[in-house]
Amino acid sequence: DLMNQIEADTAALVGREYMLVEALEKVSEGYDFIVIDCPTSLGIIATNALLAMANGQCTVSGGEPEYYDFIGETGPGANRPIFNAPIDVDAMTALFEQIITHPQQLRERGLRSREFVVKHNSATTVARRFLTFWQSRLQP
Question: Distance (Å, rounded) from C-alpha 96 to C-alpha 100?
Answer without folding.
Answer: 6
